[in-house]
Amino acid sequence: MVWCGAIGGLLEFCKLSLRKNVLKEAYSHNLWDGARKTVATLWDGHAAVWHGYEVHGMEKIPEEGPALIIFYHGAIPIDFYYFMAKIFIHKGRTCRVVADHFVFKIPGFSLLLDVFCAIHGPREKCVEILRSGHLLAISPGGVREALISDETYNIVWGNRKGFAQVAIDAKVMRKLRHTEMKGWRDPVTQQVRSRAYSSGPRAAGTLHRLFRWLYEKFRYPFAPMYGGFPVKLRTYLGDPIPYDPKITAEELAEKTKDAVQALIDKHQRIPGNVMSALLERFHNKQKIN
């Protein structure tokens, strides 16, 4: 698929940058900034050409200081890579992101994950990042949401509230983010996304249950993926949820979930449809970043 070629090209670029880093160690600290800038530009170009990607509400991302961005996890979160590139280009900031452990085991991916500042966690590390004034993104649903969620974009967070405790401990506001998908603190960001990629088993209940069981058992997404369609993608940033010292993690998690659901209800066509998303490539709704 097209996105595989794009990722392969980025990996090769990062490897070349690393070799250059070894050869010119005297000013290596500038090379990674250059590498991130180039990778972000490549991602941004791919997003514009292949998906007509738009971000609505970029002004809600702070120019400085911490922010926790909460987002819905698609089968393949390609839109979030695009979103991180936009932040780097327009804000000059790197957004750390919590990734599933299995991603770090994919051969050749560790270097790219380092470039994009992906981390395993744990909670203490997330709090440290926010207290240091950085941006951090978390998808409470994670891979489970990617496997189970369907064209109705149901939120699959279970009882997870660790992200809320992180926000409370770091005393930051949360931003909510959702990418409108067709066919897919202080702030928490709400985002809505178009379904550019899907999990194969969604069409078959028995296989769906099997692949979910395999994930719960081995913590690895065995489900095959399909997609890569050049559908329209739009990311919407919701209003930040201010820090409240009196709120509990359970209350904050529920409040955040409701806010993300509100973004989905407002911006996402239900159910998602590939053909309508393809047609939207020829229709611009509003001014974008």
Automatic annotation (TrEMBL):
SUPFAM superfamilies named among the record's database cross-references: Glycerol-3-phosphate (1)-acyltransferase
Signal peptide span: none
Record's GO cellular component terms: membrane
GO molecular function: acyltransferase activity
Pfam family, one: Acyltransferase
Top-level taxon: Eukaryota
Domain Phospholipid/glycerol acyltransferase: 54-172
Protein name: DGAT1/2-independent enzyme synthesizing storage lipids isoform X4
Species of the source: Physeter macrocephalus (Sperm whale)
Lineage, opening ranks: Eukaryota, Metazoa, Chordata, Craniata, Vertebrata
Encoding gene per record: TMEM68
